[in-house]
Amino acid sequence: MRALRAKGTGMKNMLNAKTAIGAALAGSFLLGALAVGYSAAQQKNEDAPKASSSHAQLNTSFSDTQEEEIGEIVRAYLMDNPEVIIEAVEAYRLKMQMAESDRAKTAATQNMALLLDPATSHVAGKNPDEATVAVIEMYDYHCGYCKRAAPLIKDVLKNDAEVKVVFRELPILREESAYAAEMALAARDNEKFVDFHFDMLDSSGVLTKERVDKMARKHGLDVAAMNKAIESGAIPSMIDANHLLAQEMGVDGTPAFIVASTDGAYVEIMMGWSEERLKEMIKEAKNAS
After folding, report:
1. This prediction's pTM
2. Are residues 218 and 161 in the same domain?
3. What CA–CA distance (Å, rounded) separates 124 from 167?
4. Where are the beta strands (DSSP E) in 225-272?
5. Distance CA 57, CA 71 (A)
6. Do 163 and 22 sit in the same domain of this protein?
7. Which residues of 43-77 are buried (b: 16+ CB within 10 A; e: fewer)?
8. What is the pLDDT of residue 6?
9. Predicted confidence band of residue 232 (pLDDT cuts 50, 70, 90)
10. Which residues, at least 6 apart from 217, have a Cβ–Cβ distance to it below 8 Å?
């Protein structure tokens, strides 16, 4: 599962835009066809004797000449109103965005027990057992936006007793990310996870094995014992499970935040990073619980 990589959002947006333009042109063509067909049908009805039956059929086939006329109508309209294509692309983008958001929320709701499971993550907070809101973060230690999110997460851990944070490793950006994630999970048994976690997030540059091991020793961790725990296979399996959860929710980059009220009344997902939006989500979850 470590082979999962964040997809290029630029390429995805380009493909979406091309599809939307095609849809806009097809829609315009259809409108032109309906206009010509309607006009032709009206003319035929005017020229033909009145039908004695209420079930008279309308001929909707087009001649070569009519198809040429349709093409000219569509072309002229788009040349005079190019904003129609832009509007169609934007409408398509919003429609796809809403569909992806609904899919992600549905998957998160269905997998909430797994997302909150402390056996495969690290749960922390001022009073996690009594918290009414959970902030589940999926992150990579080489992720710049994950590093930007760290100050707010630290503040929540220290000052907000209503919120618990569930840390879920999602190493996708570099090969070295996998070892950093495994070592972080191995630190849970020593109650050193939070300090070790933020030490790695606060660092710059590539987290090589040597650097990670040095940081672990700085926090009084037994590197040999941690590596032995990793080699047992349980920790890599936890990370594999996180990748599967991410795929089900359509998460293909870091960070990703799932905010939920512990009573299930509220679930929301944010892909990427916005301090303002995360604060809003936490507030909404508190109000919903």
Report:
1. 0.72
2. yes
3. 8
4. 256-261, 267-271
5. 25
6. no
7. eeeeeeeeeeeeeeeeeeeeeeeeeebbeebbeee
8. 37
9. very high
10. 223
